[in-house]
Amino acid sequence: MKWGRITFANRAIERNFFNAGDTAQIFAVDIIYKEMQLHQDDIINIPIDEIRTYQGEKVILPIAGYFQYESRNPVFPASNDIIPIFLSLHCTAKQYLKHKKFWKNFEPIGCRDESTMQAMRKNGCDAYLLGCITSLFPRRDFVPETPHVFLVDVHPKAVHYVPEHIMQSAEYTTQDIPIDRNLPKQQIADIIQEKTKNIYSRYYNEATLIITSRLHVAVPCMAMGIPVIVVKDGFDKRFGWLEKFLPLYTPDQYDVINWDPQPVELEEHKKLLLHNAVSLLKRKACMHDLQYLHNFLMDRKRKELRTSFLVSGYQWLAQYSPQLAAFIRYKVLKPLSISARTDSQKK
User: Fold this and answer.
1) Which domain does 155 fall in, by range?
2) Residue 222: CB atoms within 10 Å
3) Sign of the C-alpha dihedral, residues 141, 143, 149, 154?
4) Is residue 325 part of a domain?
5) Which of 78, 119, 85, 124 is nearest to 102 (CA)?
6) Does residue 201 share a domain with residue 250?
């Protein structure tokens, strides 16, 4: 029996870029494996597009991330040689949900967001809201001496409200990293790992404040003990559970943003999440513990969350033409919603 890690090289090749947030979730799996004291020789990588077709030694595969249906490379149901353990799943596609027997066979389903949890329960599955496993990133024990603010995929509309004293130490950056699709697949996989590691290492070592529209910047940075401000034109339901810990600022609230947030105390939550993750992977899940974490995240103040028409259209198109969807994302959606400027564009 082997233990698996999902890799994303093929997805990056199709789109000409990779989202560092995808790999961040795999780093969180590594944290869980370290807690379980697994030997490195027992861990293998499974490309995301081979989850359905893998043949070989049985693999226990933690599933964490955003699983959008793509007609050319469907992921679920998983191969019979894979035992999927759902730790932090976002999946609401009808094309996947229709495989009811598959989901029932591998319940309980740990869900990253409420929409997935509700879809799974409606499907007759035992499902719980657990949030994102990047909440497990380790907390740093220092504060950088030099102010350094990262503006990660922040729309200029929000930047307009950032106080001048914060802007003086700000750096614009993005989580979408271009790749050379002509490189060998394994080299692309290695580049993705290394660049993602460098991105989060910079946040860990340098950031005194993070301002972002990205879920997988906000959550791991919050876990690392970095003050975080989350701003976005509109938040869809993937972000809902995060309200338990951080305000979600939309344009109507930009004038009341707290520009001096404190780090979130997350250590007790991490212990409970890690305990549940390990128990799920050992197939000894305690329903009481899962329900406790679920109730904790469900008990929060809520704002209206919705997916915009443009984003819904992009998600539908990505099912059938990922390359065209990626082009539209860069040329249309990003300028309209989460456009990031580089330092060369700073004024």
Assistant:
1) 136-265+335-345
2) 24
3) positive
4) no
5) 78
6) yes
9 pLDDT tier (thresholds 50, 70, 90): confident
pLDDT per residue as tens digits for the range 246-301? 999 999 999 999 999 999 999 999 999 999 999 999 999 999 999 999 999 999 98
- On whether both 159 and 223 belong to a single domain, the answer is yes
Are 218 and 339 within one domain?
A: yes
Q: Are 306 and 232 in contact (CB under 8 A)?
A: no
Could you report the per-residue pLDDT of 35-45, keeping only the tens digit for each? 999 999 999 99
Rounded CA separation 6/153 (Å) = 25
CA–CA distance, 84 with 277 (Å, rounded to integer): 13
The alpha carbon torsion through 164, 169, 175, 177 (nearest 10 deg) reads 120
Among 123, 89, 118, CA closest to 105: 123
Residue 45 resides in a domain: yes
Residue 37, sorted as left (phi over 0), alpha (psi -120 to 50) or beta, turns out to be: left
Strand order through the sheet with 228-231: 170-173, 149-152, 209-212, 228-231, 248-249
Classify residue 212: in a domain, yes or no: yes
- Give 210's strand partners: 150, 228
